[in-house]
C-alpha cells in the first residue's frame, strides 16, 4: 500500500494505492488519525487506485468517520467503483460514509 | 489442475505471504481479477481471525494453506490447530445501524460467505479445516449485486 498526500488549499487529499488489508490497515489508521486529529480538518480519501479493502480496512474507515463526526471534521471518500464499490455495498457502507463520485466533487463537498 | 501449498506462521507476515502467493497464482494462470480479489479478501478475513483469536498461548503456530486452481474454480483449504471455530456459526452483522452505533464485528465472516460460492467447515483430529470455493465463471449473489 502506498499513501500520497496532497494539499489543496486547506484541504488534504490522501490517495491510497494497493491493498487495504489486515497488514496495511494499521498504517492507514495512523495516517488518518494524524490528519483528523484536530478540529476543523477537511480530508478527502481517494480510493480510486486500491485493489481491494477487507474488514480490517473498513474498521479503520469506520473509526475515522466516527472521530471526524465527533470532532466536527469533514471527511469524504471518493474513487469507489467496481470491485471496491461491491465490497462497500456488501458491508452496508455506501449509505454510511460520505461518498463523492470524484476527487473534485469530494474537494467541493468538504469546502 | 494446479495445487500450491504453503505453511505460514500465525502472524501478519504469514497473512501477507498468502496474499502475494495468490497474486502470483492469479498471474500465472491468468485468472479473472475479480475472482482473485474475492479470494484475497476472504483469505485476509479467515487468516486474520486465526492469527488474532485461534490461540491463547502466545506461541507460534503453523497454518497450512492449500490453493488449487481447477478448470472452473479457485479453491483454498486452510488448516489450523487453534480452538475449534466454525465461521459459519457466526450470526450476520447489523448492517443497518447508524454511524455512531456501527460495529464491524462479524463483518469479515459476512464477506467470506458472500464473496465465495461455497464455504465448508470440518473439524478433523482437533484441527480446523475450512474450504473456500470461488467459481471462475458465473457469479455469486454479490457479483450480481455489484453489476446491477
From the structure above, extract its key features.
heterodimer, A: 111 residues, alpha/beta, Transcription Regulator spoIIAA, 5-stranded mixed sheet, 5 strands, B: 148 residues, alpha+beta, Heat Shock Protein 90, 5-stranded antiparallel sheet, 4 helices
Structure write-up:
By secondary structure, chain A is an alpha/beta fold. Chain A has one domain: Transcription Regulator spoIIAA (2-Layer Sandwich), CATH 3.30.750.24. Chain A is 41% helix and 32% strand. Chain A has helices at 25-35, 55-71, 82-90, 103-110, and strands at 2-8, 11-20, 42-53, 74-78, 99-100. In chain A, β4, α3 (82-90) and β5 form a beta-alpha-beta unit. Chain A is globular. Chain A starts with a strand and ends with a helix. The model of chain A has no long low-confidence stretch (mean pLDDT 96). With 148 residues, chain B is an alpha+beta fold. Chain B has one domain: Heat Shock Protein 90 (2-Layer Sandwich). Helices cover 37% and strands 27% of the residues of chain B. A 5-stranded antiparallel sheet of chain B has the order 1-2-3-5-4, covered by helices on one side. In chain B, a hairpin with a 2-residue loop joins β4 (118-124) and β5. Chain B is globular. Chain A binds chain B through residues 19, 21-23, 51-56, 58-59, 62, 65-66, 69, 82-83, 85-87, 89-92, 96, and chain B through 12, 15-16, 19, 33-34, 37-38, 40-41, 44-45, 47-48, 51, 95-96, 98-100, 102, 104, 107-108, 110-111, 114-115, 142-143, 145-146.
Detail the poorly predicted runs of chain B: none
* Fourth-level CATH superfamily of chain A: STAS domain
Order of helices and strands of chain A: EEHEHEHEH
State the strand order across the main sheet of chain A: 1-2-3-4-5
The largest sheet of chain A is: 5 strands, mixed
Shape of chain A: globular
Radius of gyration of chain B: 15 Å
> What is CATH's topology name of chain B?
Heat Shock Protein 90
Q: Could you give the order of strands across the largest sheet of chain B? A: 1-2-3-5-4
CATH class of chain A: Alpha Beta
